[in-house]
Amino acid sequence: KTLHNEQRHAPDCTIITFPHSAKTMKLHIPIIHWSVVLVACCWQLSIVNACTPPLVVKGKKFFNSETGEYFPVKGINYYPRPNAGELGTGGSRDYFTEEMRPIWERDVEHFKALGVNAIRLYAVDPSQNHEAFMCALQEAGIYVMIGLAASCENCAITEDESPACYPAELKTRGQDIINTFSKYPNIMAFDAGNEINLVAPTQMPEWNAACQKQFIRDMRAYISGCGETVMRQIPVGLVTADVERSENALYYGCQTVPGDELETTQWYGTNTYVHCDGSATSIDQLTGYQNLLSDFGSYGLSYPVILTEFGCLNEGFPTLVGDDGMSYEAQRTWLQVEALLDPQYEVEFNGGFVFEFSTEKVYSESTSDWPFNTYGPGNYGVGYYEPVDCDDETIPCSYVRFPQFDLLAQKYAAANETTGRPTLDSYTPGAVSIPACPTNFPALDQFTWPSASVEDRVCWDDGGFQCPSCGGAPSGSSGGGSATASPAPAAATPSTAVPGTASSPKPSSTMDMNVPTSPSASLGNPTPSPASSTRATKGPTTPSLTSAPINLEDIPDSFLGTSGVCRLPRAVAVCSTLCILIGMCFY
Questions:
Q1: Coil, helix or strand for 246?
Q2: What pLDDT sits at residue 543?
């Protein structure tokens, strides 16, 4: 009765605190008050269980590091370009920042309905604040694959011959993104490049492949050099267009310099569009997928392979009626999802990302009028935005689901069964085999790399970061991450900065990130085909990281910390202690 409890509300967390005057009464607090603290503590633990523990790679598979369950990627590529206005032009934007909250916050609810467990982002601006976006996804149980490259100047592997195709500035950009995003537990992987084999001369993927391989090596060396105690060891891989399939798959898995483990990719992505028969009714009829399975089964790769874009379009897919009563042509039936997540395919593949979440009007309207209810070769979205002139600035967009949205959700839901799938403990990878390098591809030590003279960024300690809704402290509270040496630069270097800096009211870069969705699409084409998307980015940043310790000797006051947000995972130890004490008292 002497205690006057105060409820303080943080996002998704009801907090019970005690005034300082209660300190002297600690030993006289009735057991009911300790129970209140325990209930609040255990309720917060139930929130954490819904969040995303980091993933780990073992052999050819991703696993949940906490539960040990196999993690088949049931993902979608995300680029929410509106229909009109500056944000809807052919240029690219970072739609995932705090400024863009109304855009992504709207779409996260549809991610949940779709049942995806991962999304893929082609490029980001590391100078912007993405914390709310990443935390919203974490709370929804969604992981993120982040692209390190972009189409701004010196931000990606180029069409030049090795070694000129690897700009030295790209090394800094990659490290900035890794530093900024590695603190988030739901980052599943970093993507060092998207379809760079399409900018090489026809039938010559070896032209610039060494640059891509060296960039992977530099990023792996950086993460490894930071050390596990400072930076989570997030896997680095790449994405290729599904042309010259064998040569690309083998080259990025081989060691051109014997014994150099860092030059091999840690996962491999392929953008493949091999199922275009809308009349197929079983996975046994998917000849393209059967060939894909046979090919990758013959390579002997020892790391995860992901279909980073899939979902072929064809007029042969059925016409279906949507919730709005309108008929929509060529609605994909997602038989390829059924195949990809079938046990026989999971031997070689770790799931994939459907292309894509929303149809991009700027690329689709030339062949299919809005609202895209007639077939068009660029209608890759599982939904679209309305009204036709929405710009997400003065006119907000609303997302409308195509009938194929629900079909995809059903296929993903059907793949939730874990019975019979391996676990982290039970899975035994096959013997690690390093494939022989294709003879026409050069070794990395044949070149003098400009990136070798670029000083590494300082490694940032994430300080045990957790999103507020998952038990952590929001940015700006007491405590924080720290650098292992001198502070990292806060300003963008001239080589990586592009129009639209962190001080701009909205990102304003307008350059092509070029994400071709078919083998014939051209990366770097200033006027992409309707089957293409584009992405962009800007310069580096100093990440905002927080943490705050708990004084276990003063549970009523410091259990909560100065920001009024529950502290975890340290709170687990507190809860365990309280459970023991209460059990002893009742006993």
A1: helix
A2: 33
Would you tell me the crossing angle of helices 131-139 and 101-114 to the nearest 10 degrees? 20
CA nearest to 79, candidates 514, 371, 403, 386: 514
| Residue 571, helix vs strand vs coil | helix
Q: Which residues of the chain have pLDDT under 50?
A: 1-32, 37, 39, 41-49, 476-481, 485-573
DSSP characters over 34-48? HHHHHHHHHHHHHHH
Sign of CA dihedral 131, 132, 134, 135: positive
Predicted TM-score of the model (pTM): 0.77
Q: Are strands 305-310 and 351-354 parallel, antiparallel or unpaired?
A: parallel
Please tell me what DSSP assigns to residue 458: P
Residue from 83, 75, 74, 73 nearest 358 by CA: 83
Q: What digits encode the pLDDT tens for the residues 532-580?
A: 333 333 333 333 333 333 333 433 333 333 333 333 444 444 555 565 6
Please name the residues in contact with 431: beta carbons below 8 A apart, sequence gap of 6 or more: none
HEC sequence for 541-577 = CCCCCCCCCCCCCCHHHHCCCCCCCCCCCHHHHHHHH
Instruction: Please tell me the distance from the alpha carbon of residue 263 to that of residue 310, in angstroms, as a whole number.
Output: 27
Q: Rounded to an integer, what distance in angstroms lies between the CA atom of residue 311 and that of residue 309?
A: 7
Would you give the distance in Å from CA 276 to the centre of its chain? 27
Torsions phi, psi for 529 (to 5 deg): -70, 165
Token pair listed for 394? 């003065």
Compute the distance between CA of residue 52 and CA of residue 186 in angstroms, rounded to an integer: 6
Pure H helices in 327-453: 335-340, 343-346, 361-364, 403-414
Q: How far apart (Å, rounded) are the C-alpha atoms in residues 172 and 152? A: 14
What are the pLDDT digits (tens) for 136-148?
A: 999 999 999 999 9
The alpha carbon of residue 545 and the mean position of all alpha carbons in its chain are separated, in whole angstroms, by 19
Residue bearing tokens 């492949």: 209
- pLDDT score recorded for residue 384: 98
Token pair for 404: 């194929």
pLDDT at residue 505 in the model: 28
Q: Considering only the C-alpha atoms of the chain, give the largest distance between any 2 of them, rounded to a whole number of Å.
A: 81
Reference 87, options 108, 104, 109; nearest CA is 104
Please report the pLDDT score of residue 470 as a whole number: 84
Which residues lie closer than 8 Å to 326 by C-beta, 6 or more apart?
A: 371, 373
The answer to whether the beta carbons of residues 262 and 217 sit under 8 Å apart is yes
- Please give the torsion angle defined by the CA atoms of residues 251, 256, 258 and 260, in that order, rounded to the nearest 10 degrees: -80
Measured in degrees and rounded to the nearest 5, phi and psi for residue 271 equal -90, 105
- Bridge-based pairing of strands 6-10 and 236-241 is unpaired
- Bridge partners (DSSP) listed for residue 56: 63
Residue 103 exposure: Cα atoms within 13 Å on the Cβ side: 25
Instruction: Tokens for 279, please give them.
Output: 């009349």
Q: Which residues contact 204 (CB under 8 A, 6 or more apart)?
A: none
pLDDT at 255: 97
Task: Give me the DSSP letters along 69-106.
Answer: BB--EEEEE-----SSSGGGSSS-----SSTTHHHHHH
pLDDT, position 465: 82
